[in-house]
């Protein structure tokens, strides 16, 4: 009888445990939604990068590299002509 009175008046564990369960449930749901939004933002960023940024970078790189290649070939041709002149001058 005294134990029952004590538990009803002074033992708040059942009520506190219910509040704790409610808090944890709310926290996990909000956290889950926040993490879902973060993942969707990452997915959107990756899609944008894959579909738009990467092709632009590839095209810019190809354009720049083709220009560099043509300049290197021109420089190589000039050096080759200089070497031929030096070789002809040594023969004479």
Automatic annotation (TrEMBL):
InterPro entries: Bloc1s5
Coiled-coil regions, chain positions: none
Cellular component terms (Gene Ontology): BLOC-1 complex; transport vesicle
Family to which this protein belongs: Belongs to the BLOC1S5 family.
Name of the featured protein: Biogenesis of lysosome-related organelles complex 1 subunit 5
């Amino acid at each position: 009888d005294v134990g029952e009175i004590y538990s009803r008046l002074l033992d708040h564990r059942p009520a506190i445990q219910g509040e704790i369960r409610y808090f944890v449930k709310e926290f996990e749901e909000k956290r889950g939604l926040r993490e879902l939004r973060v993942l969707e933002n990452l997915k959107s960023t990756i899609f944008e990068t894959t579909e738009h940024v990467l092709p632009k970078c590839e095209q810019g790189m190809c354009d720049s590299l083709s220009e560099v290649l043509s300049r290197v070939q021109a420089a190589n041709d000039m050096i080759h002509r200089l070497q031929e002149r030096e070789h002809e001058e040594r023969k004479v």
